[in-house]
Amino acid sequence: MEERLIRVEEGLKTVAEDLNDIKSALKDIASSLKTLAVLEEKHNAVSEAMRRAFKSIKKNTERIDSIEKALPELLISSSWVFKAVIYVMALLGVGAIGTLLKSIIKF
To answer: Does the predicted model carry a pTM greater than 0.85?
Structure first.
């Protein structure tokens, strides 16, 4: 009978040790689940930010496309304006030189 009682006590000790191991494992699992939940929230935030970024990129792409379509016309008109400005500046320069020469010749 004593032998049987000793075996039961040993079995209870083994079960108690196993229960402690299970408690420790459950604590680790709970900690891991908390970490996983935090990571999942961060992942969701990053996914949402990427969605917004791609939406913004799409809008900018459309805007750039419209600018690129209008660019040849802008280049043509800007070259005409630039040529006109140079022509006006040349006329003003010739006029200024003429005025200078007239004033020099008078003296």
So the answer is: no
CA separation, residue 2 to residues 5, 7, 9, 14, 16 (Å):
5, 9, 10, 18, 21
Instruction: Return d(Cα 62, Cα 56) in angstroms, integer.
Output: 10
Residue 34 one-letter amino acid: K
CA–centroid distance for 103 within its chain: 66
- Exposed (0-12), middle (13-18) or buried (19+): which is 74, by Cβ within 10 Å? exposed
- Per-residue tokens: 77: 């008109």
> Using one digit for the tens of pLDDT, what is the confidence trace for 48-76?
999 999 999 999 999 988 887 877 777 67
Residue 72: what residue type? P
What's the CA gap between 57 and 66, in Å, rounded? 14
Spell out where 1-107 has E strands.
none
DSSP state of 107: -
